[in-house]
Amino acid sequence: MRSHSLRLRLILIWALAIVLSLTAAGVVLTALFAQHIESVAIRRLTVDLNRLAALIDADDPAIRLTQSMSDPRFEIPYGGIYWQVRDPASGQVSRSRSTWDQTLDTVGRPISANEPTELRLTDPEGAKAMAVARVLSFELASGGTRPLELVVAEDAEATDLAVAAYRLDMFRALLVLAGILVLAAWTQVTLGLAPLKAIRRGVSAIRAGNAQRLEGAFPTEVQPLVAEVNDLTQAQELAIQFARERAADLAHGLKGNLQVLNAEAHELRLKGDEAAAQAIEGLTQEMARTIDHQLGLSRLRRRSPHRAAATDLGEGVERIVRTLHKTARGAELDWAVEIAPGTPVSLDGPDLAELLGALIENATKWAKTRVRVSGLREEGFSRLCIEDDGPGLSDAQVERLGQRGVRLDETRSGSGIGLSIVREIVALNGGELGFSRSTLGGLCVLVRLPAGPPPL
């Protein structure tokens, strides 16, 4: 797909939207999962905090528990979960065996007495830990109260590992989902643009002359475009037809007047006015060549270089050679036709006949004894070479060759527009035209035209 492809643009937009959306969804879902895990951990620590408060014997100066906490990890050194009770007044601290010889640093932390306060601490192993703390006032048997600071903390490593594993699994799943969505987007874009491809094929068929209008069932959204193309095609065909008819009518009228002028020139010659007769005949000949040239051009049509239509070059050459061989001049020559089998040209049959007729007929006029026509296919082009063993041309004559109305030898018959029309045909069909000296001694005309698919 090219960089300016509409399909590529749509697929890239879809892919970008899918990637950004799924990435945002992954970030949000990971944050929600982490928040959920943290909330569960905080609730669990709050339950342990409440149990710790229920087990404290505040009357004991050492602040002891009436019985052990239910979670056995509290009794394992560095077990990952810790409790601590501190008397802010005396600095007395009681803690779980899991803290070993360390304490939980809560000094200076704002801890509420009304409800549990969530804290982020460093556990005895130096790792991050979540904690729940509260300041409670315990009634003493002797009367009065004793405020104590209670803390329950848990290593956050397990939570972080759970979040990391969830993030990895989720993004793997999102990656697979992204691939599926991109494939679905590609399918959607391909199916959505399929009518445009059908329209393009239809337009190519019209330009190739294989169809007159777009036919088929098209979606409602592109039906107005199809109607506009058909209307434009019809209008163009009518315009071309009217232009050709007007050109033919104009040529018919002008040639009639030219015949009258030639008759007048003949009368002048009979009266002895040779100069005036030649001047009039020169003008009428120039006008006739111009008319023939324009009529020839009006029969040509610009074609798309990507059309599927093709004409077999060998068959076209054989037809022209057979026709010329029946003429008196053609029968005198030795003909050599060397066209590789299945050599097509992306050119209409009438245009190819016009091109071959002009070139081979020109070689027939200049050849002494031999004409050779060869052709082959090479890298998307078909090459045609027409050679004769005539006198050949100089570099200056080659430059002038093919200019409209120019004849290099006025003693030879012809209007001088044949090679000019050949140039027009080659240019309209994306080909190349060149002239050089032939190995036979005369002129070599080399034509390269786009090669279409082999004819069926």
From TrEMBL:
UniProtKB keywords: Kinase, Membrane, Phosphoprotein, Transferase, Transmembrane, Transmembrane helix, Two-component regulatory system
Domain Histidine kinase, first and last residues per copy: 249-453
HAMP domain span: 190-241
Signal peptide: none
GO cellular component, one term: plasma membrane
GO biological process: one example: phosphorelay signal transduction system
The protein's enzyme class: transferase
Catalytic activity of the protein: ATP + protein L-histidine = ADP + protein N-phospho-L-histidine
Subcellular location, record wording: Membrane
Principal localisation: membrane
Segments traversing the membrane: 173-194
Listed EC numbers: 2.7.13.3
PANTHER family in the cross-refs: SENSOR HISTIDINE KINASE TRCS (PTHR45436:SF5), SENSOR HISTIDINE KINASE YKOH (PTHR45436)
Protein name, entry field: histidine kinase
